[in-house]
Structure formats: C-alpha cells, structure tokens
Amino acid sequence: MTTAGATAREHAEDYFRGWNAGDAEALRGLFDPQVSFRGPMGVADGPDECVAGLLGMREGFLEEVVVEKLLVDGDEVVTWFEMRTRLDGVDPFPVVNRMHVGPDGIDRIRVVFDPRPLLG
C-alpha cells in the first residue's frame, strides 16, 4: 500500500483491514517512519514496533476488531471499535483509537480502553 494521495479515512480503513488480515506489509506501508503508538497495554515507536505489536495481539489473543464508528476531522481519525478475542470468558469490549495522518502516513496512534478484561 502507498500513502500517496490517500485520505485520512482511507488510511484508517486500511489500518483496520490490514490488522484484521494480519498483513504486516500492508500495515507497514501505512506508517510514517516516525510513527508512535501509546496505549494502556504498551508503547511502540517506528513502523516495525507498531506492526509487531498489532500482529502480536493478533497472533496471541485477538480474533478481530469490528469498527462501529469512524469519525474524520481533517488529518485526525477517531475510531470506536469492538475488540473480540479468543480468550475464554472475555467478552468483546470497546476501544477508542485516535490517529493522526501526516504527509508520510499514520504518524501517531493513541488508544484508550479498560484493560481489566485482558488482565484476568
């Protein structure tokens, strides 16, 4: 995937599609070289760490993410989605993701959710 000419909405849609598919190259192609991720369960800097974190969750426990609402304001995208896991006794739970898309792709991702279901 290329970032040239893509809108913030397209970046966000491709991000969730790539995450659900476990497609490392598609995800990597969306990220700015200086991308940073901050969330309740971790920190990642750079495309390789961000891809590793997303695919690590996918391989470890994540069944899928289901986007319920995607709101765009210029180069900012806020997404409300449901995280569905393969973990026994963990019901799907809501997550809010805020990303910024710069000229070289997604450069900032901030995630908020209650991590207690995953901490067992």
Molecular structure report:
With 120 residues, the chain is an alpha+beta fold. The chain has a single domain (8-114), classed as Nuclear Transport Factor 2, Chain: A (Roll), CATH 3.10.450.50. Helix content is 31%, strand content 44%. The chain has a six-stranded mixed beta sheet, with helices on one face. The radius of gyration is 13 Å and the shape is globular.
Please supply descriptive tags for the structure shown above:
single chain, 120 residues, alpha+beta, Nuclear Transport Factor 2, Chain: A, six-stranded mixed beta sheet, 4 helices, 6 strands, globular
Report the average pLDDT across residues.
Answer: 94
The total tally of domains equals 1
Q: State which percent range the strand residues make up.
A: 35-45%
Total helical elements: 4
What is the top-level CATH class? Alpha Beta
Our Rg estimate from Cα atoms comes to 13 Å
For the biggest sheet, the summary is: 6 strands, mixed
Instruction: Write the element-wise H/E pattern from the N-terminal end onward.
Output: HHEEHEEEEH
